[in-house]
Amino acid sequence: MKILVCIKQVPQKDAPLKLNAAGTWIHEDVSYEVNEPDAYALEEALRQKEKHGGEVVVLTAGPARAQQVLREALAKGADRAIHLEDEKFVQLDSANTARAIHAAIAQESFDLIVTGLQSDDFGAAQTGVLLAEILGIPHATIIIGIEKTDTGLRLKRELEAGHYQHIETTMPALLTIQSGINKLRYATLIGIKQAKMKPVRKVTWADVESKISPNLQQIVRLYVPEKQKRTEMMEGPAPEVARKVVDYLRTAARVI
Amino acid sequence: MAFKFKGVDFIGFDALLSSDELMARDTARQFIEDNLIPIIEECNREGRFPRELIKPMGALGFFGANLEGYGCAGMSNVEYGLVTQEFERGDSGLRSFVSVQSALVMYPIYTFGSDEQKDYWLPQLATGEKLGCFGLTEPDFGSNPGGMRTRAVKSGDEYILNGEKMWITSGTLADVAVIWAKVEDEDGLVRGFLVETDRPGFTAYDVHGKWSLRASVTSGLSLQDVRIPAKNLLPLTGGLKSPLMCLNQARYGISWGAIGAAMSCYDTALQYSLLRKQFREQPIASHQLVQEKLTWMISEITKAQLLALQVGRLKDSGKVGHEHISMAKRNNVWMALECARMARDILGGNGITDDYPIMRHMMNLESVKTYEGTHDIHTLIIGQSVTGVPAY
C-alpha cells in the first residue's frame, strides 16, 4: 500500500500566543509541533505499512521550520518526504492548500491518503476532504478504525454522543483521522540518525503557483476574548433569594 | 500534586541545537514523561528499580547511544548529553543505570575489547537483554582507586580474581561485571576483565538503607578465587588511565544530567510560586525573596547549559580535556544541589513530601556530588590543570 500522510506544523498547544500588529495572525516567535491528529494519521499509516507492506510518504506545506515535522516523521519510520517550502503556504486557505498539495503530488499515485481531521490552529477540517474532491476519490472523516479488505477498506467513524458508524470504501481513498485512534510511537535514536539519509523532495511556490487562486477565505480580525465579569449578588432570606434565582434563570438567562 | 514539566530555556538555548539534537532530547523527554514520571515516586518510596523500563529503553536506543555500530545509535556527544539531561530530569537513579550500562560497561568493551568481546556483548547490552556493572571502587579506595587491593593472577589460560568492590550501581542486576584489578604478573598494572556474574566465587549483594538513588540498585561485589578465561581480559586496557577514560564518559553525561534535575526543581518551584498565595492573597512569586531564588536558579541553570554544551562540542571535535569535563561535572552538580535546596525552600512544608520531586532530587544529588569523582577531587583536578601542581 502506498500511503501519503499530510502533516501540518502548528504552534505548540501551551505556547503563549501574541497577535501581530495587524491583528490577522500570531507572532511567529513561538515553538511549533506536529498537529496532534496528524501524528495519529502518521502512526496509522506506519501500522498499515507494517501489516501490508508498501511505502509511507509524508508531506507538509510551510516555511523552512516546517521541515522539522517531516524529519520527525522520517525518524519514526516514514520512507520519504515532500516539502512545499515557502512562507506563503501558511496564509493559504483550505481550498488553496488542497490545490497546492494536489499539484505537488501530480506525478504520484497513492492508494491511501491520510491526514488529521483538523488542524489545531485554524481548525477548518477542510483541507483533507477538498483534496479528495480535487483528486476525485472517495473520502471519509473522523476515522477511528481502518481495516484492509479484499475490495478496499472497512472503516469505523466516530459520530456524536458515543455513536459509531461502520462504512466501506474502495481505494484509492482519503481519510481524516481522529486523535487517540492508536498509541503513538517514539522516534528511536537510530531512527533519528537514519532520517538524515532519507529523501526530501522540495516543491517551491513557483512549482504550484499556477494552480492557486485568490483565497476564498480570509482572516479579518483575530482578538483575545474579552472578559465580561457580570456577577450579581442576591441578598435576603433563602426562600426569597431562591425565588429570585429561579426568576433570573427563567427570564434573563433563559436556561429553565 | 506535581506539575507537568514545561521545559526550561531562558536565553533561546534551543537555537544553539541542531534539529537532530532537539529530536533526540524530545524523544527522551516524552519517554520519561510517559513512562517514568507516573511511577517514579512509588519506585523511590519502595526502593524499587523500574526493571520494566529496560526493554523499552533498549528498543529506543538509549543504551550506548553515542557508540557506532553493534546496534547502537551513533549519536553525537551533545545528543547523548541532552538525552542524559532528560533522564535525570526524571530521576538520577534511572539516569545512573543508563550511564553505567552505556559509559561504564559498553564504552570500555567498545574501546578496550577484542572483536569477539564486542560482537558478543555490545548488541545484547544495546537492547538491554544483558546488563552490566562497573567494579572500580573498593570499600577502602574511593577517590584513590590506585590503591585498589583486587588482584588478578594468571594461571595457565585463566585469570584468578580476588577482591571486594563497593558502591556498584546495578551490581545484582548485572550479567557481566567490568572488574578492574592489579595484575600480579604485570607489576601490578591495572587492567579490566569481563567477569560473567554467574561464575563460581562471584557474589553481589545490595546496599540497603540508602536515602539516595532509591530507584536504582547499588551493590557490593565479592570475588573469591573467581576463575575466568584469559580471553576475558579487555586486551587494550593498561593502567589506571583506562578506567579513568570510562569515568570521563560518565562524568560528561552527569554534567548534563544534573541540569535535568535542576530544571525539574526550578520548574516545580516556579509553578508552585505562581499558585501559592500568602499575605494579601498574592502569589508568593510576587515576593522579592522568592524572586531572588528563582533568579539565582535560572541564571545558574542557563550558565550550566552553556558550559555543558561547549564541553560537548569540544568532545565531538576531539578537543576535550578531562579538566573541562571535571569543571562541567563539578559546577553543574553543585548548582543542581543548590537549586534543589532553594526550590525546597520555596515550597515550604510541601517541599519535603513526595507529592513533589524536589526532595528526591536533593537526596539523589548528594550521591551524584560524590560519585564519578567527588566535588573536591574535581576541584583538585582543575587546580592542577591551572597551576601545574598536583595537590592530592
Automatic annotation (TrEMBL), chain A:
Cross-referenced SUPFAM superfamilies: Adenine nucleotide alpha hydrolases-like (SSF52402)
Membrane-spanning intervals of the chain: none
Ranges of residues in domain Electron transfer flavoprotein alpha/beta-subunit N-terminal: 22-212
UniProtKB keywords: Electron transport, Transport
Keyword Transport (UniProt): yes
GO molecular function, one term: electron transfer activity
Similarity comment: family membership: Belongs to the ETF beta-subunit/FixA family.
Name listed for the protein in its UniProt record: Electron transfer flavoprotein subunit beta
Species in which this protein is naturally found: Acidipila rosea
UniProtKB/TrEMBL annotation, chain B:
Domain of life assignment: Bacteria
The keyword Metal-binding is annotated on this UniProt entry: no
Sequence ranges assigned to domain Acyl-CoA oxidase/dehydrogenase middle in this UniProt record: 133-226
Name recorded for this polypeptide: glutaryl-CoA dehydrogenase (ETF)
Molecular-function GO terms, alphabetical: fatty-acyl-CoA binding; flavin adenine dinucleotide binding; glutaryl-CoA dehydrogenase activity
Alphabetic keyword roster: FAD, Flavoprotein, Oxidoreductase, Transit peptide
Coiled-coil region(s): none
PROSITE patterns: ACYL_COA_DH_2
Pathway: Amino-acid metabolism; lysine degradation; Amino-acid metabolism; tryptophan metabolism
UniProt similarity note: Belongs to the acyl-CoA dehydrogenase family.
Swiss-Prot/TrEMBL GO biological process terms: fatty acid beta-oxidation using acyl-CoA dehydrogenase; fatty-acyl-CoA biosynthetic process
Residue ranges annotated for the Acyl-CoA dehydrogenase/oxidase C-terminal domain, each copy included: 238-386
Catalytic activity field: glutaryl-CoA + oxidized [electron-transfer flavoprotein] + 2 H(+) = (2E)-butenoyl-CoA + reduced [electron-transfer flavoprotein] + CO2
Keyword Oxidoreductase on entry: yes
E.C. code: 1.3.8.6
Domain Acyl-CoA dehydrogenase/oxidase N-terminal: 19-129
Cofactor(s) essential for the protein: FAD
